[in-house]
UniProtKB/TrEMBL annotation:
GO CC aspect terms: ribosome
Protein name (record): 50S ribosomal protein L11 methyltransferase
Superkingdom of this protein's organism: Bacteria
Molecular function terms from GO: protein-lysine N-methyltransferase activity
Source organism of the structure: Methylobacterium tardum
Biological process per Gene Ontology, one example term: methylation
Record key words, sorted: Methyltransferase, Ribonucleoprotein, Ribosomal protein, Transferase
InterPro entries: Ribosomal_L11_MeTrfase_PrmA, SAM-dependent_MTases_sf
Recorded coiled-coil stretches: none
Amino acid sequence: MHAPDDPTRFIRANTRLLPVPHAPEIRLHVADEATALWQRTEEELQTIGLPPPFWAFAWAGGQALARYVLDHPDVVAGARVVDFASGSGLVAIAAARAGARHVIASDLDPFAVAAIHLNAAANAVADRIAAVSGNLLETDPGVDLVLAADVFYERDLAEAVTGWLTGLQAKGTTVLIGDPGRTYLPRDRLECLVTYAVPVSRSLEDSEIKRSHVWRLRP
């Protein structure tokens, strides 16, 4: 795979800065249509078989978790936070706006890292968000709170993430998850805190409104 020459340029050229439907206090660089952007990303990197451009959309679980954090700032106030598989940086931005001391927004996709930088700046929280591309699984990031949205769509990833989050929770880290109930969500380990009706793109979620939940990992 070729590294993107200028992911920031690519993002600016292929997205629009728009309010998040369920968290309109936050604006993100988002794409109008997933498939066309996916194809343009593959052309930019001169490769095929790339994962979807998760960074270019406000997904249902992320919107729910961002809304919860904005409405319950006590959850993040003064905390050191990780937003795992951050994508656009939506949840990280919500945490920073709600008063988190410092937020690590992690994602393996170099386009996501660039999008997080752009979106954090657009929401005036760039000074409190560090976008990183390293794989945090099997590490202890040394934070108070881990936020994870829309990460349970694939079996192997879900198992790895669940094991990692469980280990952190056992050490005293609070874990909150935003998810509309995807296939590999470990429901037996979770307590549902709130449910929202989240506006989403029909092309992404097969509906225009998705019931999405915020979950807390139980001991």
